[in-house]
Amino acid sequence: MPGKNKIYLIGFMGSGKSTAGKKLATLLGWSFIDIDRKIEENAGKTIPQIFSQDGEEVFRKIESDVLKSIKSQEETIVSTGGGTPCHGNNMDYMLESGLTIYLKMTPEQLTYRLLESTGNRPLIKNVSDEQLPEFIEKVLSVREKSYNRADIIVEGINLDISRLLTLIKTHSAT
Questions:
Q1: Which of 6, 33, 110, 136 has its CA 20 to 30 A from that of 126?
Q2: In what order do the strands lie in the sheet with 31-34?
Q3: What is the dihedral of CA 21, 93, 125, 112, to 10 degrees?
Q4: Burial letters for 18-53: b for 16+ Cβ neighbours within 10 Å, e otherwise?
């Protein structure tokens, strides 16, 4: 594929970045990296442990370092954390070093998906089911300023990977 040899999938937690990334990597014959898993490997602890023991600021620093540590990786699909594009200069870095794709979902769609997994996600661990829709709407409205800078924006619900691949090839050809 001509042009950029790294694709960053961005979007809110629960938008399907890891699932889509694995499928896309398989279709392209590329490598796949999940930034959250790489952070856990490097830190030797889970993301919830990092948040509770070290705080979000330390987590965001580790996240930026891990993102930049894969600079030399080629032909790689990168699934970022939901907040990755919104901190430091991460979004600028991703726009310069690869193709960015925002898997866009509505607060309602995200609420439905996240109701099943709140315990595993530090940012919503202490958010009640009743508070979750309002929390998502509030955080998403802030994060979308970064997300909407992506090279390609696609609906994340019922994502058609073949259609996404066509969009990537069309974008790379221009």
A1: 33
A2: 31-34, 76-79, 6-10, 99-104, 152-155
A3: -50
A4: bebbebbbeebebebbbbbebbbeebeeebeebbee
Q: Any idea where the domains of the chain sit in the sequence?
A: 6-173
CATH topology of domain 6-173: Rossmann fold (3.40.50)
Q: What is the DSSP letter of 108?
A: H
Q: How many residues does the chain have?
A: 174
Tens-binned pLDDT, residue by residue, of the chain (174 aa): 435 689 999 999 989 999 999 999 999 999 999 999 999 999 999 998 998 899 989 999 999 999 999 988 899 999 999 999 999 899 999 999 999 999 999 999 999 988 876 556 777 888 888 999 999 999 999 999 999 999 999 999 889 999 999 999 888 776
To which H or E segment does residue 115 belong?
none
Residue holding tokens 């600028």?
A: 92
pTM: 0.92
- Report the alpha-carbon distance of residue 87 to residue 97 in Å, rounded: 16
